[in-house]
Fold this sequence. Notes:
19% helix
Amino acid sequence: MEKRNPDCLLVSEWGLPATAINSGFHLDFLLYSACGEYTSLFKHEEGRNTTKLI
């Protein structure tokens, strides 16, 4: 793919960057979910940017 399409980028949506890169993807896109991996990317402020599970 890289030889025929050098301007292309292959993106996974796994949330597992080490696995994605080792599998030939150029980057891994982390989709939002209530999991700690996503929310840990942000500064925690009381009453803000927290997820309440129903």
